[in-house]
């Protein structure tokens, strides 16, 4: 009989977290039965041909509903000490970060319902993506049911606020980090607890999906592409400033920004201030197939990631992995786990963060030496496919 694995994540299905879907599909192909328990139900369309089988195994209830209320009564009667322990630890562990405490007050009741569902389904193991709220849910379910859990830590979930992270590590069967940088970061924080529990597994992509078909250098002007949420850690202002510098040199280019986010108005204002409305196009969030088309048609992919003042930074951006898999020359910054993917001068170009001039210079180098850029791109594709 197939082993049953429950996946917990903040939102599902979510376009920007397609790597979780790829992971679940890979496990399904290995013969595991996957059940999905998101904390928030998204209504985004998923275009992957195998995705519907995963979507159909989704279990979701809002944090406060009749079913959730009934689950509280069930655990109060069946395991009152475990139920009270779950509440006590969730409150004490998150009380120092008010936003996390408020989320915990929603997550614990929801997790109590999911615990009942998982027992009914005879779940063998839980895996949570992101070390924050989904892993709190897995921890609560573990306290109520003894079902073992693991989790994947990505980026902001360990770099910024991390309430209860050591507790989550101690009780987990194991923890996955998406980069060696992350693993070493956790070991510096938690010593042997992290050393004994963490393994590195890079996010995966589907190599059959990401294959370039368009010939390189076929545009009448250089096409640049940046795929990422319009948020501070993505570093869009430095790309915009780099574009202004490139325009002053006389270079003809079009820079397309794919993604949506809270910094959109600020980015639009900066583009207008620099007179780049005809050179930089904001495309908003796009479906996966459209992103593939844009990658196929672009000359250079740029992700000018930065570390924010509150510690937020990238893990290893899946957008860069997809671009390399498509055989595109990539430029990014030498922070966090990015150098594990892009080796400067071998599989792409790395520049210091928050340095618009260095970004502009890197674009100019690739523009002036397209054959060299293709060598970098081919080496990058080989690395990703390994």
Automatic annotation (TrEMBL):
Domain (Glycosyltransferase subfamily 4-like N-terminal): residue spans on this chain: 89-208
Domain of life where this protein originates: Bacteria
Glycosyl transferase family domain: residues covered: 219-369
GO molecular function terms noted in the UniProt entry: glycosyltransferase activity
Keyword Transferase: yes
One Pfam entry name: Glycos_transf_1
Alphabetized UniProt keyword annotations: Transferase
Keyword Cell membrane part of the UniProt annotation: no
Database matches in InterPro entries: Glyco_trans_1, Glyco_trans_4-like_N
Record protein name field: Colanic acid biosynthesis glycosyl transferase
Source species of the chain: Candidatus Entotheonella gemina
